[in-house]
Write a structure and sequence with these properties.
Distance between the termini: 14 Å
Order of helices and strands: EHEEHEHHEHHEHEHEHEHEHEHHEHEHHH
Shape: globular
Number of helices: 17
Radius of gyration: 21 Å
CATH architecture of the largest domain: 3-Layer(aba) Sandwich
Low-confidence stretches: none
Strand content: 15-25%
Number of strands: 13
Largest sheet: 7 strands, parallel
CATH class of the largest domain: Alpha Beta
Structural class: alpha/beta
Helix content: 40-55%
CATH superfamily of the largest domain: Glycogen Phosphorylase B
Mean pLDDT: 92
Oligomer: single chain
């Protein structure tokens, strides 16, 4: 099949969304499908084996402008490619304005699948956006959702919200979790990873990896660190990534006197991410926000932790508790009180046999289910009608 994948990403980026797009395209291509990835032309170039990258001009390379110009110009690119090499499937990582281009399915009759990973209406409500912004967003999404043949979502919560809000047929939804590349993220010898990063061989390291956003609960992690350090002064938190909260996090660490127990590692290249994960004793996926129960959770970080064979502690929100219950990959914290994390972290740190068992279970789950090959096969089997 010939597959066109549309995604408004920065090809130089290394965030979870960009990795998700690249991994899905890579698997489509590895299965023998002719894969074209349409992205905004932000100046950088990159080669992905087996994938034809089509860089769509955006004129002014600023987020507010690329959002509109990418989809406006994408219409002409899609029209041209449909006339010269018509796709069997158009697959998109949902953007509210993508219908400016994808309405062409009415003419060219390609199958159209839209992947929805979040709920803008919920996020606008959380950010207390103006009512007219929410209204316009709802109208644009309603138009956008008139055209797809299938919807791909990572959680049942997103499916249920969209079906109720836009009167969509749940039978046309495929719920598939996110995953990890088990060839990139795999267990490594902890001591050598620590040596490579200049970390102590005797310290107990906790790790959070990802974008520093409000709903990730990192500020709450900082607040429980004094209690953890009081119980065990040998505990250090590694924060791998960056984002909108970085200045506030650094200021709070200074106020709490935690400079020796919290290390800001910054944004790291993909090749280093597994090294940091393997250097840790326990990996963390906290969520303390009102968004999670509505959207559900399928965070990339969780599956990359699991792929590296690390035990995980996460919030019991958005369906994460079911993954932990089914695969026994660590512990979940049911209470919204961040202080409850202290006891669970200390208990798991003091149980090396359980840590080892949970890590092994996580790696096994990724190899069997939560890997991009299996996920992509499930998606294409559904789109092909198998």
């Amino acid at each position: 099949m010939r597959i066109f994948y549309f995604a408004r990403i920065d090809i130089e980026g290394n965030d979870a969304g960009t990795r998700h797009v690249f991994e899905t395209c890579k698997q489509f291509a590895s299965m023998g499908h002719e894969t074209f990835l349409f992205i905004p032309d932000l100046g950088a170039t990159r080669k992905l084996p087996g994938i034809s990258i089509v860089q769509v001009p955006v004129f002014i390379r600023k987020p507010a402008f690329t959002y509109f110009s990418f989809h406006a110009v994408l219409f002409f690119y899609l029209l041209y490619y449909c006339l010269t090499s018509k796709p069997d499937i158009v697959y998109t990582r949902q953007q509210t304005l993508e219908w400016w281009a994808t309405w062409l399915k009415v003419i060219f009759r390609f199958r159209y699948a839209i992947e929805v990973n979040g709920l803008p209406l919920i996020e606008l409500k959380m950010s207390q956006a103006s009512g007219w912004v929410s209204s316009v967003t709802r109208i644009m999404e309603w138009i956008c959702y008139r055209f797809p043949d299938y919807w791909v979502v990572p959680t049942t919560q997103i499916r249920d919200f969209l079906c109720k809000e836009y009167r969509l047929d749940p039978k046309l939804f495929l719920v598939v979790s996110n995953g990890a590349d088990a060839d990139i993220f795999y267990p490594m010898e902890q001591g050598s990873c620590r040596d490579q990063l200049g970390l102590s061989g005797n310290t107990k390291y906790l790790l959070f990896m990802g974008g520093f956003k409000k709903w990730h609960g990192i500020l709450d992690l900082i607040e429980i660190m004094p209690d953890l350090v009081d119980s065990n002064s040998n505990i250090t938190l590694l924060l791998v990534g960056e984002g909108e909260l970085i200045a506030g996090l650094q200021a709070r660490v200074d106020v709490l006197g935690l400079k020796d127990n919290v290390i800001f590692c910054g944004r790291r290249p993909l090749a280093e991410m597994p090294v940091y994960i393997n250097a840790a004793d326990i990996c963390l996926a906290p969520f303390f926000d009102e968004r999670s129960p509505h959207t559900g959770l399928s965070p990339l970080k969780l599956f990359e932790y699991m792929a590296c064979g690390k035990p995980v502690i996460a919030s019991a929100l958005g369906g994460l508790d079911e993954i932990f219950k089914t695969h026994d990959i660590g512990e979940v914290v049911s209470s919204p009180d961040p202080k409850k994390w202290t006891m669970i972290i200390l208990s798991l740190l003091n149980n090396p046999e359980r840590m080892k068992s949970c890590g092994e279970n996580g790696r096994k789950a990724v190899l069997g289910e939560f890997n991009w090959k299996t996920i992509s096969e499930n998606i294409l089997n559904r789109l092909a009608g198998n």
